[in-house]
Every structure is written in C-alpha cells, then in structure tokens.
Amino acid sequence: MTDSLCICSELRQSRNLLLDIISNPNNEMTTMTNALNNYLGLLHGFVVSLDAEDGTDSKLRHAVRFRWTNTLLGNTPTYVFV
After folding, report:
1. Using alpha carbons only, how large is the chain's radius of gyration in Å?
2. Burial code of 4-28, b = ≥16 C-beta within 10 A, e = fewer?
3. DSSP bridge partners of 57
4. What residue spans define the domains of the chain?
5. Which long-range contacts (CB under 8 A, 24 or more apart) does 61-67 make?
6. What is the reported pLDDT for 4?
7. DSSP three-state, residue 49
8. How does 43-79 read in b/e, with b if 16+ C-beta sit within 10 Å?
9. Is 38 in contact with 14 (CB distance < 8 Å)?
10. Which of 28, 42, 48, 60 is the most exposed place for a label (fewest CB within 10 A)?
11. How many CA atoms lie within 13 A of 49 on its CB side?
C-alpha cells in the first residue's frame, strides 16, 4: 500500500505544479508541456498496468476513489470510479 501512497503523493505534487504553471502566463510552453506530460504519465499509471504487455488494468485502478469538483457548478464533489 505504500507504493500507492507514494504515487498519490507524486500525483498531487505534479498536479499542484501544473496548476501553478498554468496560472502564470509568463511560463514557456515547453515548461507547461513537460509538467502536463509528467502529470498525465502518473495518472496513466492508475489505469494501465505497466507490467503487462497487453495493456491490462492496473491494480491501482480501483484503489482510489476519484473526486471531481467543478467550480462553476459549486464545489460539491462528484465521485467517479475510474
């Protein structure tokens, strides 16, 4: 379980960095692209197993319940099982 906690921590840090980069219009496009690729790569690890050649589901896929909030419609979270 510590591996999933480590990945969650890295994912959270990567997301926060991406949000900081997006909010500053003075950042270079390559900086934003690198941060986005890092974030999406970690997020991809929750869905697809890296061990299998056939692209089967990751064991982490159902370990975390994803919480989606939309600031335009209110901050009431909608829970989605990925």
Report:
1. 15
2. eeebeeebeebeeebeebeeeeeee
3. 48
4. 2-57
5. 63/4, 64/4, 64/8
6. 63
7. coil
8. eebbeeeeeeeeeeebebeeeeeeeeeeeeeeeeeee
9. yes
10. 28
11. 10
Q: pTM for the complete prediction? A: 0.64
- Helix axis angle for 29-47 and 2-23, nearest 10°, is 150
Model confidence at 55: pLDDT above 70: no
Task: Convert the pLDDT of each residue in 64-79 to its tens digit.
Answer: 666 666 656 666 666 5
Closest residue by Cα to residue 63 from 77, 78, 47, 75: 47
User: Tell me: the pLDDT tens digits for 1-38?
Assistant: 566 677 778 888 998 999 899 888 899 999 999 999 99
